[in-house]
Amino acid sequence: MTLDDGRTRPSLTPPDFASALAQPRMAPPAAIPPAPVAVPGSVPVPGRRGRTAPVWAVGILVLVLIGLVGYFLNAIGPAASIIGMLLALLPLAGVLLAVRIVDRWEPEPRGLLIFAVAWGAIASVGIALAVDLVLSLIIGNDGSSAREAFSAVVQAPIVEEFAKGLGVYIIFVSARRAFDGPVDGIVYGALIGAGFAFTENIQYFAISFIEGGVADTSLTFFLRGILSPFAHVMFTSVTGFALGLAARRGAKAGRAVGPWVLGMIGATALHALWNGSAVFGDFFLLYMVLQVPLFVLFVLGVIALRREEARLTRNRLGEYASAGWFTPQEADMLATPAGRKAGLAWAKTLRGDRTALMEEFITDATSLAATRQRAITGRDPHAADDERMLLQKTAAARAALFAP
Length: 404
What we know:
Number of helices: 12
Order of helices and strands: HHHHHHHHHHHH
Distance between the termini: 67 Å
Number of domains: 2
Strand content: under 5%
Low-confidence stretches: 1-22
Number of strands: 0
Helix content: over 70%
Mean pLDDT: 86
């Protein structure tokens, strides 16, 4: 489109991007090294640079945890806090299992997964409590219905989604090499949301037990633990999805701020809609006609992203198969759920049950495909080093699987 002064308006859809999920090439891809004649004698240890949370963030978590423990013991008491924690573990376990299924294709570093849950459960809650305290001192809290509605529909969504979204951004910046795309962002966002819901549930369940005993606690558990265990998970996943798209397009920390803010706005809108349905409308009616369809769309979106991830894995491993690192049949096996299942079943029949070795082979091959994708797009200058290391690991694991 041409402006009045003759200049051309820049397109909102850059020509390099065929779609919102496209991965443009930012540098010439490196050639795949030839397959070795002999298996390397030693297996390299993968580096951790760009795949771990910063030490300062871990230190913040420890300090905030001490404060939260003191807060819960003083405000609620040890007995009610323990009861609330035990009940909160049940929905947390279900959510973690669901996220593990999503993350199973290309597992993220375990340390980052733990950090994500910890950030949600500790830092996000601490930030939200601190902001709530400051706002109460500044604008007061007269207990009126208007003040309660403002707190639930405006204040809580904005503050909590910022606190949780900050954790996703910290992972994006500090562990950039483990943040490849939308699925990774959804996993980190979901775990942060799960951690936040866990600590929040401790408070809700404990207060219900103190004020209404078993009856009120059972109702609260039904509403939060059964009907809505994925609420915070879904909210913060929107932030993670936005940062995942930025990661896929090679955005650095500064350029990712825009997508991060847009993601938090989306998360805040969903959060406000959820809280508003409880404050202003018929919660159960809106839950069935609005929240359930949204959750179904969320699940379908994750499935679509997983399929895209599997397609890329198959394409990249096919390139290695052409170079002689795998056979075409092995590439098919490694890049499909059915093939992986068959491969694990075959490994179990081998002498000594080599299932664990096959699992390692599948994991490293999937990481190799993701590394190749980073090399093709040019967004990771260390991709070539990772590629060499993973090629050696997969070659050694392959040889061990076929060893007599």
